[in-house]
Design goal:
113 residues, seven-stranded mixed sheet, four-stranded antiparallel sheet, 11 strands, 52% strand
Length: 113
Amino acid sequence: QVQLAESGGGLVKTGSFLRLSCVAAGRDFSRDTMAWFRQAPGKQREMVATITSGHNGAYADSVQGRFTISRNKVENTVYLDMNSLKPEDTAVYYCGAPDLGFWGQGTQVTVAS
């Protein structure tokens, strides 16, 4: 059974740092593009960052320069480092393999002003 488990969310103040982690089990995702998406209350889910098997990252304009996606293939883990957090970053963050349709349950990030 494939499982993706996110962790690292929480309540922080504006300007803070958080690291989200996503541990995959049940399948080797080392050859797949992985991604972080987020969904804020009342809004559609949006792409935050993606990373290819070759470690090439791409970012939404809203997080470019503040967030960094990385992966550890040996540990089958994907990370999202989030710097200079803003209240508009508040959302549930989901890790997934978008091309395959596998998604985690999400972790809540709340940034207080």
